[in-house]
Amino acid sequence: MRKGQGSIEYLLILGVVIVLVLIIIGVIVGFQSSVTSVSKQQSDTYWAGADIGIMPNHLVNASGAFLTVKNNRPFRIKIVEIKLIDDTGSKGTIPSEFALSPGGSANVELPDVSCNVAGSDYSYSVQIKYTEPSSGRVFTFTGETPLIGKCQ
Fold first, then answer.
1. Is it the case that residue 129 has pLDDT exceeding 90?
2. Separation of alpha carbons 48 and 145, rounded Å
């Protein structure tokens, strides 16, 4: 064995281990960031099929938020409250409660939700409180995916 060969082998193995660790960390961080970012198409698909759906024609502008809410539950419901939540807090009051039959939909305006910069992105967590009129039970549906779009 030549002088220094053991040291060089040790350094090479250590270098390979460090490179592998850096690659693994990069893959994990890249995977986490791709999981947390949701595209508009993914958001629209999720919300169209959610228990209390929001159709893809939703828009937010300086006048308010405009949504088409759909009942995907197998029973009649009464929408009591819709909250759109962003980093500035919770917003959203509907003018009045309304009932939806299974598969039924209704257009809703939330005047206290708005964005003033046309073309900027919005992302809201959504909470919808509803009742089942036949039993009087109250439910709160919280979406697993944010409602995403561009300000008009």
1. yes
2. 11
